[in-house]
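Co-fold these.
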Amino acid sequence: MGMIQPGTGILNDRDIAQDLLTSEKYVTGLLGTGTLEASNPQVRQTLSQVHNETESSSRRVFDYLNSRGWYNPRVADPQAVSDLRRTVDEASRDIHRSFSVSGPGPVPGYGAQPGYGGYQASSFAGQLPSWAYQDPYRREDRGYGGYQAGGYGGYGTSPAGGSGAGGSGYQAGGYGGSLPSWAHQEPPRREDRGSYQGYGTRYS
Amino acid sequence: MPQLTQTEVWFLDEAIKSNRLLISKLSAYTHMTSDPQLRQLCQDCLHTHQRHFSMLASQIR
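Predicted complex below.
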């Protein structure tokens, strides 16, 4: 009852396009993570290029489905949007209070709006390099070297305090001493993590 | 060839297998679809993934 009998499950155009989108989305996600994890510049460059092009393919398939009325993202429930807005307001206030953010104060109706350039906590002011005040989500500014040399650089090497490995922006000044104990622990070694093997569905 | 990390090998392996499967599926879909627009889309994606397969494979040669 309701089961597709063997030999009758013929794929129609909608099935084909939906399967294609599912596959493209999986590969896009895989390549995005792979790009971030790669340390070899050549591999990273290749994964990044393949990722960007696969993302474009995903968009084309989405647009096709959408134009046929087969993929219609639902408009959010107004209550859900309202709840989210309240969450953002609360989080913005917490951030503003916890980090003594300078610069523009709370924006009416939209919380503190610290902005990523606004993380000028009083204990940080004047101590961080210029890149620390830039928007971290601007891809072209990220620089994978920054992952190592920046805040994450001293992650596993400086057991306590903020004066450990030089160049570690997040451990500079007064901030380092206020980190919780777990922040000073060495993260699990890559070979011990094992979780990557479980990433998504293996196609093999 | 520079030495690759375990993580890089895993991602390359997974990406290569995924592209190989997509190439197989898209080859079949190109003949199965009745919509010319979808057929063209499948063909374009097929060529893209064939190229990606080669690019990824070249990283381990």
